[in-house]
Each structure stands twice: as structure tokens, then as C-alpha cells.
Amino acid sequence: MEVTSTLLQKSQMFADDSSDGFPTTKKFFVSSIGKAHLINALYGIGYTIQIAMLPYLLISSNAGIEHNGYLLTLFSLLQFIGSIFFGRIADIWGVKRSFYLSLVSSSMMYLMLTLSKSMLGYYISFVPSFFMQTFQVSSLLVCLKTENDNRTAAIGYLNLSYGIGIIFGSILAGMLVNILGPRGNLFVAFLSQVLALYISKSLEEDPKLLVNNNIEKIKLKDLFTTAQNECTRLFKLFQKTYGICLLIIFGLLPILMTKFAFAPVVVDMFKLTPAHTSYLMTYAGIITIIAEGLLAPYLSTLLGDMICCKFAIPLTLSGFLLLSLCGANEMFVLLFMIIPLCGGALLYICGTSQMTKRVDESELGSIIGLNTSIFYAVTIMAPYLAFKSYIALGLGLYWLLCAFICFVITIYIFVLDQSTLKIFEDDADSLETMFSSIKLSL
């Protein structure tokens, strides 16, 4: 009787919250996950405006355009380091206060960029980005508010709302730049974060969103006084998920190499105009958003996380092999580029979900932080490796290099994994999901 009562209470909690991943009721946008989607979209708007306006700020300050690359590299490094640190804070503080920290940091950054007029000021303005981890907090909220069966789809839908924010931010920046100028646009980015902060204030202190066990056991000062213990704890966390971590690192490398090198390589090959380059990047962005926000949730629901992770790499391999046969045919390059972008989306969304399912609830913030840090580590390496490889090998051999990396990983997955890391050993859930989907379709 007691067990039945507990289950009924739990099901009622999820039914009332409308938080099983994506809009199913009119109450969705006043639910916790609905608000997370709104915050996510506003965060995407601010981030996109900042990226778009940064080169114009540098030009107006008579600074070398190369500083744009330096500042973006600084941003990636701060995100890489800060994500792990922030993940631990999120476990201690809970979702609501973590949203406060992240959104106050992004607000400060955009306001400082608006007011800065010197190179030193621009570099100092990027320091708050250490705590700009709003997407990470949204992911934590989703993981705490959804059951395992719905988690992958819910994480994928976050990419959809974030992508919508990016698209809307790009349109907004283009419309307002001639009216408000770069600094006025950055002030709009600041206002978007203030609005997101206002929405986050309406989040309730749900026990599921505030991990009380961590608050009782750990004080914030322990992060500074027991650094060795924290490193040990992080290493133990990595041990629980190291197989998926390595799969994401090596699996994403050729995909992100291609994604970051895509525009420069195609511009060099086909001599495109700046307008065409902009359309090209928009195209790649939309494909990624659809793949992460719609395709990955659908296939994970149909087949299960691990089957999607397992076959994402062979899918990507086929895409690179087809690209190597395209030569200088622009239409085929654009068409076949969809395949590795979809493979990367499947791997990252399903891999991220699997990482969160292999740790305790009190460690979710930390594991999402580790996942984010891994992504930024690959992001930092990928452009350098991509451009060096393209210059040294040319386009045809460059595609074959990416295909070779995927081929090695595919051989590992299907031949060597069971006798080494055993990443796919615990695959019962994926098989059960797949067979259930087959039964439903019959």
C-alpha cells in the first residue's frame, strides 16, 4: 500500500508539472521545463548577438580583427575550465540559484562589452563567461524532472529551443544593427539575459531541483579548501562514464573538424561571396538544430541510446566516404554534409543522456559539467587539426582522413569493445526499447 501511494504521488508530480520533455499541454510554458526552454532561447539570442557584433566592436575600436579569434579562443577556454567547476556548484546550489549565477554572469559580460572601448576592456569583459553555463543548468533541470525513458528526448529538445534562439538572435542582430549599432545590439543582448533572469525567479524551489543531500554535506568553501578531494571525486566520476567520454571525444573529433572547417573549405573551393557564406553557415546550423532537436530524440525513443551511439559512427563514416567522391560538385557536398552532421548529433545527444544515467542524482550537475568540458576540449582542438589537414592534404584526402578516423572507431565498436572497455556491455535498455518499438509497429 505504501509503495502504491508513493508511485501515485510520483506520477501525479510529473503529470502536474507537464515536464516530460516537450509541449503536451497548455501548461507547458509555466512548468519548470517550459521555463527552461524559454530561458534557453533567450540565452541563445544573447550569445548569437554577441558573436555577431564582436567583429564590429573591434573595427570601431581600431583593433586588429585577429583579436576576434583570440577572444573566442579565450571564451572556449573559460567555458572548458568553468563547466566542471560550475557543475559542482550546481550540485550544491540547485537549479534556481545556478540559473542566477549563470544569467548574472552573461548579463555582466554583455553590459561590459557595451561599455568597453579598449582592447583591455574587451578581454576583461569575457572573464564572466567562466560562469556562463545556462544550457548546462537547463540540462540539469531536465535530468532532475524527467524519468530515464524520456531523458534523451528532453535533452534533445533543449537544443531545439536553443537553436531557435540562435536563429532569432541572428535575425534580430541583422535587423537592429543599422538602427542601434553594435553597442545598441549588445545592450539588447543584455536585456535578453535580464528577461531570462526574471523568468528564472519564478522557478519554485522544488526538492527535485535543489539537491538537499549535497547542501547538508558540502559547503561552498570546501571547493577551495579540499581541492585534492574534489579532483579525486571528479576522477571517480570519470571512471563511471569513461567509455562514453572516450567515445564522444574521438567520435566528435572528425565531425567537429568538418563543422568548423566547412565554411572556409567550401569558400576556398567554390569561391563563394560573403552573402553565400552566410547562407551556408545558416544551412549547416539549421541541419544541426533539426538533427539534435528532432532526429536524435525520435531515434533514441525508437531504438534506445546505446544503439544510436553505436551506429552513429558508421553513419558518419558513410557520409565522409560519399563526400570524398563528390569532388568539386557543390550540390553533392551540401547534400552529403547532412549525414555526418546527423551522425554527430545522434552521438552527442544520446551519449550525453547515457552519461547522466550512469551516475547518482546528486552528481548530475558534475557529470553534465564534465560532458560540457569534453565538448569544449574537442571544440578547441578541432579547428586547428581541420585547417592543418586541409592545407596539407587537399579536400579529397581530407574527407578520407575523417572517414579513416570513423573507420577505426567503427572497428573498435563492433570488434574490440567487448574485450576491452565494454562501452556497450550494458545494452539491455536499448534492446528492450528497440523490440518494444518493433512490437508497436506490427
From TrEMBL:
Residue ranges of the TM segments: 36-58, 70-87, 99-116, 122-144, 156-177, 242-267, 279-300, 307-325, 331-352, 364-385, 391-415
Keyword presence, Transmembrane: yes
PROSITE patterns cross-referenced by the UniProt entry: MFS (PS50850)
Keywords on record: Membrane, Transmembrane, Transmembrane helix
Domain Major facilitator superfamily (MFS) profile: 32-421
A Pfam family: MFS_1
Molecular function GO labels: transmembrane transporter activity
Membrane topology type: Multi-pass membrane protein
Protein name according to UniProt: Metabolite/drug transporter, putative
Taxonomic superkingdom: Eukaryota
Highest classification ranks of the organism: Eukaryota, Sar, Alveolata, Apicomplexa, Aconoidasida
